[in-house]
Amino acid sequence: MSLSLSAERQEPPAEAADGAWLECIECGDTFGPFDAVRYTCDDCDGLLEVRYTDLPTFEDFSGSGVWRYNAALPLESGVTIQEGATPLYRVPRLEDDVGVEALRIKHEGMNPTGSFKDRGMTVGVAVARELGVDRLACASTGNTSAALAAYGSRAGMQTLVLLPAGKVAAGKVAQASLHGARILEVDGNFDACLDVVQDLAARGEAYLLNSLNPFRLEGQKTIGLEILEAFLADYDAVPDRIVLPVGNAGNTAALYKAFRELVQSGALAREDVPKLTGVQAEGAAPMVEAVENDADEVRRWDDVETRATAIRIGNPVNAPKALPGIRETGGTAVSVSDEEITDAQRDLAGEGIGVEPASAASLAGLRKLRAEGVVDSDERVVCLTTGHLLKDPDAAAAAGNDPEPVPAETEGVLEHLQG
Ligand code: F0G
Predict the structure, then answer these.
(1) Would you call 189 exposed, middle or buried from its count of C-beta atoms within 10 A (0-12, 13-18, 19+)?
(2) Residue whose CA is at the smallest distance from ligand 1 atom 9
(3) What separation in angstroms does the CA of 123 have from each of 74, 117, 186, 338?
(4) Is 117-208 the same fold as 88-114+215-399?
(5) Pocket of ligand 1, candidates 248, 256, 280, 323: which has the most ligand atoms within 8 Å of its Cβ, to mutate?
(6) CB neighbour list of residue 82: distance below 8 Å, 6 or more residues apart
(7) For residues 144 and 358, what is the distance between their CA atoms, to the nearest angstrom?
(8) Which atom of ligand 1 is found nearest the CA of 109?
(9) How much of the chain, in percent, has pLDDT values that exceed 90?
(10) Is the pTM value of this prediction over 0.90?
(11) pLDDT surpassing 80 at residue 1
(12) How many angstroms does the Cα of residue 154 sit away from the middle of ligand 1?
């Protein structure tokens, strides 16, 4: 199977350009990387992946940020706002409290627009330029739209974003707005927005930059590469497990691809690949359902709800790429309640790390799996926090302390503090 960790290195097909091509994960059909606008397989509509003749080892990387890893990417350079190179925080108190050998937080909220989406957009928007398209579009729970708007404006291109009305956090709408996107508020949920934008893209109205776009996931692979390099430097080993929030499962698919490619290049032993562990909110957990039932396909949930609006998604389009990743790495998937998410958001804030609710799902999931004994005490774990606290100021204010009104004089303030 092509998405297996034991897949062999491939000979390039005739369509390859500069050692890269697109390949359907379902039927194996191959296409040139930049010869036409295409998101899925022409023949069977399966998901596409970028494949390479030469796969890099750690020695092939130099520089900083996403483009440090250009040996693993389809282009040498992209439309950049200095994305990547995010912190991998130590959290000693949380580590003790959760009860694992090591716990590190990879805070993707420290990217230019405050989420991991920037890593995908620096590549995806550059590919759009390569293809010569002029209008970019996405459906979004917010972060993708903020990143698309910023990278699109940087590239001088028009951007169109479709958002589920009333369900996108304030910071994200503000970003899309100021960076100049046309914001279409759709009377429906994220999955409905994605259906519409896919139709628009199919009719040639815009270039689609959701994670269905295989080039975006190439950029997101660099999260995994950064984590592995940092771990090798600090522990002389890679992490046992990476825990991440799941919506469309693009990131899960991207990390798995990064690890598969390192195994194929000989840079990573198959048995060392970190266990990919996905976390969803209870009210939007179709991937968890599929993993628990050992199902090959994910059932679309039509009604989804969670405070973690970024992952309020019922139809994870990258499931065919992500499910093998969770299974082949020996990982799992778990769902958490909104209360557990908010508790974890407070826990991270208590270590000085400000994240939006969806991001805190990773820590909430780790806690749950540790309590259930699925995660062992001797594991070294990374939790991915995908977006910054300021993305969703309302959720942060609701989870945190309330402001206390005081008079504008010292005696009154002291009195209040003593009261
Ligand atoms: N965390 C945050 C903060 C997100 O914004 C998203 C996805 C995810 C996790 C899930 O990542 O889809 O790769 O599994 N947000 C998309 C958006 C859907 O439109 O911003 P995934």
Answers:
(1) buried
(2) 245
(3) 8, 10, 27, 33
(4) yes
(5) 248
(6) 65, 112
(7) 14
(8) 3
(9) 98
(10) yes
(11) no
(12) 22
Beta bridge mates, 207? 136
Ligand 1 center–CA 305 separation, angstroms: 15
| Residue with CA closest to ligand 1 atom 15 | 310
pLDDT digits (tens, 9 = 90+) for 108-153: 999 999 999 999 999 999 999 999 999 999 999 999 999 999 999 9
- Name the average pLDDT for the chain: 97
Helix (H) or strand (E) holding 348: helix 338-349
Task: Return the CATH class of domain 88-114+215-399.
Answer: alpha beta
Distance 249 CA to ligand 1 centre (A): 8
Q: What is the mean pLDDT of residues 378-398?
A: 98
Nearest ligand 1 atom to the CA of 147 is 20
Residue identifier of the C-alpha nearest atom 10 of ligand 1: 247
Enter the tokens of residue 181: 């996107």
Confidence of residue 10 (pLDDT cuts 50, 70, 90): confident
Segment 209-262, tens digit of pLDDT? 999 999 999 999 999 999 999 999 999 999 999 999 999 999 999 999 999 999
d(CA 233, CA 61): 14
Per domain, the residue ranges of the chain are 88-114+215-399, 117-208
The CATH classification number of 117-208 equals 3.40.50.1100
Query: Which residues does 399 contact at the CB level (< 8 Å), separation at least 6?
Result: 342, 345, 346, 349
In three-state secondary structure terms, 65 is: coil
Q: Is the pLDDT of residue 24 over 60?
A: yes
Which amino acids bring their CB within 6 angstroms of ligand 1? 115, 117, 140-144, 211, 245-251, 310-311, 356, 358-359, 386-387
* Ligand 1 atom nearest to CA at 142: 20
Give Cβ neighbours of residue 332 (< 8 Å, ≥ 6 apart).
Answer: 275, 277, 278, 291, 326, 369, 374
- Cα–Cα distance for residue pair 43/9, rounded to 1 Å: 24
Q: What are the phi and psi torsion angles at 23 (to 5°)?
A: -135, 140
Nearest C-alpha neighbor of 299 from the set 284, 311, 312: 284
Place of tokens 């002029």: 134
* Contact status, residue 3 vs residue 321, Cβ threshold 8 Å: yes
Residues 6+ apart with CB under 8 A from 165: 185, 186, 187, 188
